[in-house]
Amino acid sequence: MSVLILALAVILAVMSLTQKNTVPAVLAFVLMMFLLGIYYILMDEKLLGLFQIFVYTGGIVVLTLFGVTVIGAKFPKFEIRPWAVAIVTVVVIGLLIIPFILPPIPYEGKAIPLKDQVKVFTDFYAEIAIFMGVVAASVLYGSIRMLHTLKHEKE
């Protein structure tokens, strides 16, 4: 069952990226977020699943859909950029490889003593935190740039 839910989530993610109109793209994104919430609930992570459904699906995405319908935005003309495809490919492969590169975590399943918490973070999670910060900054920059492009396209 979980494989089916994850496969549908991946299909909806691809649909949300490939749609020409923004409203169907956001609707596909909403369904993907909802399926991820259901997947978390099936994994016995009920709080995380409810948080995913209520906050992301119910709040943030619906707010985005409202903003898109008010603005009436359309995607600008798509041009194939080989360097962008290469960057996305490297990032995806990196995200898939990271779990296998990480060393085993000490204190797994046990409480970490207070004096060792900073050392455990810097030894095991600092690179991932920096990488995710860079990815988040890139997504934020791309979103702002897209809004800027759409704003000037209307004028």
Describe the structure.
There is one protein chain. The chain has 155 residues and is mainly α. It contains six helices and no strands. It has helices at residues 2-18, 22-42, 46-71, 82-101, 114-124, 126-154. The longest helix is centred in the last third of the chain and has 29 residues, at 126-154. It is globular and about 55 Å long. The termini are far apart. The mean pLDDT is 76.
Question: Secondary-structure blueprint of this entry?
Answer:
Layout lengths: L1 H17 L3 H21 L3 H26 L10 H20 L12 H11 L1 H29 L1
Helix pairs in contact: 1-2, 2-3
Main features:
about 160 residues, mainly alpha
Q: Gap between N and C termini, in Å?
A: 49 Å
- Integer average pLDDT: 76
Number of strands: 0
Strand percent estimate: under 5%
Helix count, per DSSP? 6
Computed Rg: 19 Å
Give the overall shape.
globular
As residue ranges, the low-confidence spans are none
* Largest sheet descriptor: none
Question: Concise description?
Answer:
The protein has 155 residues and is mainly α. Helix content is 80%, strand content 0%.
